[in-house]
Design a protein that fits this description.
Keywords: Repeat, WD repeat
CATH superfamily of one domain: YVTN repeat-like/Quinoprotein amine dehydrogenase
CATH topology of one domain: Methylamine Dehydrogenase, Chain H
Distance between the termini: 37 Å
Strand order of the largest sheet: 10-11-12-13-29
Protein name: Transducin family protein
Shape: globular
Radius of gyration: 20 Å
InterPro entries: WD40/YVTN_repeat-like_dom_sf (IPR015943), WD40_repeat_CS (IPR019775), WD40_repeat_dom_sf (IPR036322), WD40_rpt (IPR001680), WDR55/POC1 (IPR050505)
Helix content: under 10%
Order of helices and strands: EEEEEEEEEEEEEEEEEEEEEEEEEEEEHE
Family: Belongs to the WD repeat WDR55 family.
Structural class: mainly beta
């Protein structure tokens, strides 16, 4: 099923418990749609959330609110039931906010175009931490809940939240990351179509490569389970991919343009996808994956370096730190309740 949004969508997210999907558009609007397997997408709400493009969208508070981030440097919280603005932080960052992620039930993180990551405590209604690990834009983030570590995308940077410090960083350019194999592997997409596999905590060099995935850029990744992920590429193709052993299990579908964002529904039944056009597509994964059960063992893709998903955890230590590490800035801002960081105060 699909629908024309009327403008390009930069970010999408599914409600955590009901059949709703939100889309943030390039014109600053937030759209909310209801879906069902037996019917088409129906728009429930349209909100002018930002003056400039809405780059990221996330449901929070058990789906009661939607948080959006914008190129106008602001972050907005909107009530799902009424569409009313609950909180509006006009100067959340000094630069355009590019990504959002749910860290815990009461914590979210945001990243901007100049490499700044902020962690927001929704209970204290404030920015609790701010980090500046590099000067390039943050394209996305992944959170390891068991170790309280945050990995953000563009250059893989591992941030240990409990100690409020950057633990390790890679100098290799990637497009996006996800954690698989119960947190032991970090899977990275690249601009040349190769997937790079890192052992958790050791980001200086990859331990494995999946070189035959796509001829062009792997623009986005989405974790399906601990052994499989979904890739969206520059050629518009969506594929189900197995990791260790590395293989293309089957194609899922396609857009006419490069893939922009992917999301899974609360029951993992539907895959949502957007591309560099105005189309939002929902794919019934239950029906698609039924046909892949007999093909899941077929290998399609070569590894530059063999690896195992049972290897031990390698951690970067002080002897591996580069000279750039001493120049990284790390700031901690507990309980900042000034007007700039008063995020969740009611309007």
């Amino acid at each position: 099923m699909e629908i024309d949004l009327g403008a390009n969508a930069f970010g999408i997210d599914f409600h955590p418990s009901t059949n709703l999907i939100a889309a943030g558009l390039i014109d600053g609007h937030l759209h909310l749609y209801r879906y069902d397997s037996d019917s088409s997408l129906v728009r429930e709400r349209k909100v002018r959330a930002h003056k400039e493009s809405c780059r990221a969208v996330r449901f929070i508070d058990d789906g009661q609110r939607i948080v959006t981030a914008s190129a106008d440097c602001s972050i907005l919280a909107t009530d799902v039931e009424t569409g009313a603005k609950v909180a509006h932080l006009e100067n959340a960052h000094e630069d355009a906010v590019n990504t959002l992620i749910n860290v815990t039930e009461t914590t979210i993180a945001s990243g901007d175009d100049k490499g700044c990551v902020k962690v927001w405590d929704t209970r204290q209604r404030s920015c609790s931490h701010e980090f500046n690990a590099h000067e390039d834009y943050i394209s996305g983030m992944t959170f390891a809940s068991d170790s309280m570590k945050l990995v953000w995308r563009r250059y893989p940077v591992c941030l240990y939240l409990r100690q409020s410090k950057v633990q390790s960083q890679s100098d290799f350019l990637k497009t996006n990351y996800f954690l698989l194999k119960n947190g032991r592997k970090v899977i990275c997409g690249t601009q040349n179509g190769t997937l790079l596999l890192y052992s958790w905590g050791f980001f200086k060099d990859c331990s494995d490569r999946f070189v035959d995935l796509a001829p062009n850029s792997v623009d986005t990744l989405l974790k399906l389970d601990e052994d499989r992920l979904i890739t969206g590429c520059d050629n518009g193709i969506l594929s189900l991919v197995g990791i260790l052993p590395n293989r293309i299990i089957q194609p899922i579908g396609a857009h006419d343009y490069p893939i922009e964002d992917l999301a899974l529904s609360h029951d993992n039944k539907f895959l949502g996808s957007t591309a560099h056009d105005s189309m939002l597509k929902l794919w019934n994964l239950e029906e698609i994956l039924e046909g892949s059960n007999g093909n899941s063992g077929n290998a399609s893709g070569a590894a530059g370096d063999s690896d195992s998903d049972k290897d031990g955890m390698d951690l970067d230590n002080d002897s591996h730190k580069s000279s750039k590490g001493s120049k990284r800035k790390t700031k901690s801002k507990p309980n900042m309740l000034n007007s700039t960081n008063n995020f969740f105060a009611d309007l």
